[in-house]
Amino acid sequence: MENKEINPETLKKLQLKIMQDVSASAIIPLMRIGDQLGIFKKLSKIGEVSSNELAKATTLDERYLREWLYAVSAAGFVTYNVETQKFLLTPEQIAVFADDDGPASMMGAYDMLTGAIHNEDQVKEAFKTGEGVDYKDSCPICFQGTARFFKPSYEKNLVTSWLPKIENLEERMNKGASFADIGCGYGLSTMIIAQTFPNAKVCGYDIHEPSIKEAEKLAKEAGLDKRIKYTTADAKSYHGKHDYIAFFDCLHDMGDPVGAAKYAYNQLEDDGSVILIEPTANDKPQDNFHLFGQMYYSFSTIGCIPTSKSQEVGLALGAQAGPSKLIDVLNQAGFKNCKVVKKNASNMVIEARKN
Length: 355
What we know:
With 355 residues, the protein is α/β, with parallel strands linked by helices. The chain has helices at 8-26, 28-36, 39-46, 51-58, 62-74, 91-97, 108-118, 120-129, 140-162, 169-174, 188-196, 209-221, 257-267, 291-309, 323-332; strands at residues 79-81, 86-88, 178-182, 201-206, 228-232, 242-248, 268-279, 337-343, 347-353. The strands form two sheets. It has a seven-stranded mixed beta sheet with strand order 5-4-3-6-7-9-8, sandwiched between helices. The chain has a two-stranded antiparallel sheet with strand order 1-2.
């Protein structure tokens, strides 16, 4: 290979980018420790505190706590008061790190990242063989992390911003329409819909039985178990006719998305619609080379592509398929009226009408 002269400034920028990524990655286990040991929640309740005071309040070792506090303060995730040499969480930091039920919570991202790292060996082998990694063989942290990561966004946007873009949905759901949530996971989106539209007939399906069991448990805790029916089934084996069939952040994970869409077409009432929510992406790969694109392509490589390739057909659309590929899948399934009805920085909503 011909040696070419290295541009020092370009080299420095690349090395700085690597150090930024290494720094962000190094904090992952510390964030999960702070979450699992309740340190963020304790900080949110007691206000400004020294490491010694926090150690007493949490019954944790002071020296470990002190180093942890320095690390997360360096990351900007805890605030350090130079004058008092004490630590505190700002309202914004509380919203992101200590309020699980709030719309700004992002701690689930660290669960997803941890699960992805645990899948490394299986995916590395798949690189060699071209085969997939069965969804059920993913690290269990992936499932809880996915549910936790998506929950705030869905609670904030699903029934206030995304579903209102589907023509006549609110009116029909209030009158008792049937709504099927395919790939429902822990059922968080299904429960939001059932809570919002108490007259609707709501059901959720997922291939992962432990997730369905968790969905049933969460629905019961929320008092929704009589209004939602959960079933372990794949995207081509559920039953019944529905007015709406939704694929929330999951169609691109399926081995046969065309087959799944065709099956949905046949299970729809004549005036029904399929609703896709997918990660926002542009059709040209180079237009996705940014912060969100880096995240989605990375998760896709470690999770979405292996899952799809483990199933029949193994089309492997990926999490950055883009609207043209997704609409082409729907067109192949028989849908004629397909369009992006909503788009923001992280998600896009596509409606496909049967007629």
